[in-house]
Model the fold of this input.
Amino acid sequence: MSFPKNFLWGGATAANQIEGAYDEDGKGLSVTDITTAGSLDAPRMLTYKLNGKLEKTPAIPGAGLPEGAVGAIDPNEYYPNHVAIDFYHHYKEDIKMFAEMGFKTFRLSIAWTRIFPKGDEEKPNQAGLDFYRHVFEECKKYGIEPLVTISHYEDPLYLSEKYHDWGDRKMIDMYVKYATTLFEEYRGLVKYWLTFNEINSTLLMLSSFGNNVTDDKVYQHAYQKLHYQFVASARAVKIAHALDPNYVVGNMICGIVDYPLTPDPKDILANRHMWEQNIFYCGDVQAKGKYPTYAKRLWNEHNVHLDITEQDRKDLLEGKVDIYTFSYYMSNIITTHEVKDKVGGNFAAGVKNPYLKYSEWGWATDPDGLQYYLEVMYDRYDIPMMVVENGLGAVDKISDDGKIHDDYRIDYLRMHIKAMERAIDDGVDLIGYTTWGCIDLVSAGTGQMSKRYGFIYVDRDDEGKGTLKRMPKDSFYWYKKVIESDGKDL
Ligand code: BG6
Done:
């Protein structure tokens, strides 16, 4: 067995990381629009005004802006997402190149603030609707199926401030109105929808990646925010199905594989509990339609009391997702023991795995982890799955021959494609694979351009200099071959 003929090969992006044009054609400000650039050692910052003065604070999950602060743009700061790779004005050229590689699908997200600039308007912004219509039509021209993330780390700034980052039930109505507008507008142009990108990242950021948040108030907010997002997602699924039976709606989980460091039963249990909190919790609610039994333990550990209504529970059950999708980059190690050999890097601080190699940003390359994840999750949910992000962030250099020989990226992707093949052979119903950052884009974690993932190089650097010219890398021609041969010619 191998990859099926109709397998959805493609690539993935997010609006705030590619589009730029952050204030064009009526677009409002999103949370990312007030986020500065960072690096491996320095966090990205949120800029705001307090008592008329411009200030900044690290963009740390759960921290948010200080009381009374209003997100604002500081003319002396650099915001990489404001121009990004200017997909807004280059989409025709970019989609043409995706088509040249033979993409069957292109994952992109819609910027909520192009459709509802503040988030609570009566009517959508026509220019925003038109932009995505043109993008989808361009995809259709080449037979590329759009895979659309409704919300990818780009909440409207206005709503985020007014409702304290999903701290209010009213956010559900705002999201549902936005999602319904999209489902109505793009019927016939889009089939696949994902409700929230990496919905579990709210929990992951608290106790993984070297973070160890202990404040119960932060957990209360995180679990309540997630509940409102689960309900918003479930209601969106129900509406999508009612509007068009062809719609396929998925969740999207940040798929990190945790391993116990030792056979100490305490490590095994700690590892299991980490899976429950970080991975299973969100997937269970979205794919099984109800809270799992261990949820009570997770809430009790941090004194969490949730606002959940009977109608919410009904919606969760009736709004189960059709497909389970996830991102996969790396694995992690969990232990209750003291360890010396730690691995640093953005999003990766933890115990070093001696069997794995690490990227320049400290991310462990672990294709077997992808096979493991696919097999565990398919067995658990029994619905079709898609890997909607996977890739290697690396520094690319233009060689003397004017080309980019990114064999390291090809190696990484090849190993992960082989892992997916093994999972398919084991019976996993895997229907698609979209590599992350099929064209170079702004890193979400660090705001850098130099952390490149693309098959297509974009001439732009960490300071915003460059011509924005596009150029295929070696991996471009390699991936074309992979798609052409249905994954045989690796
Ligand atoms: C995922 C996000 O977590 O990882 C993407 O969905 C992000 O938005 C990707 O870009 C890679 O992370 P980074 O920090 O290298 O951009």
Remarks:
- Residues 8-37+78-484 form a domain with the TIM Barrel fold (CATH 3.20.20.80).
- DSSP finds 14 helices and 19 strands in the chain.
- The longest helix spans residues 216-243.
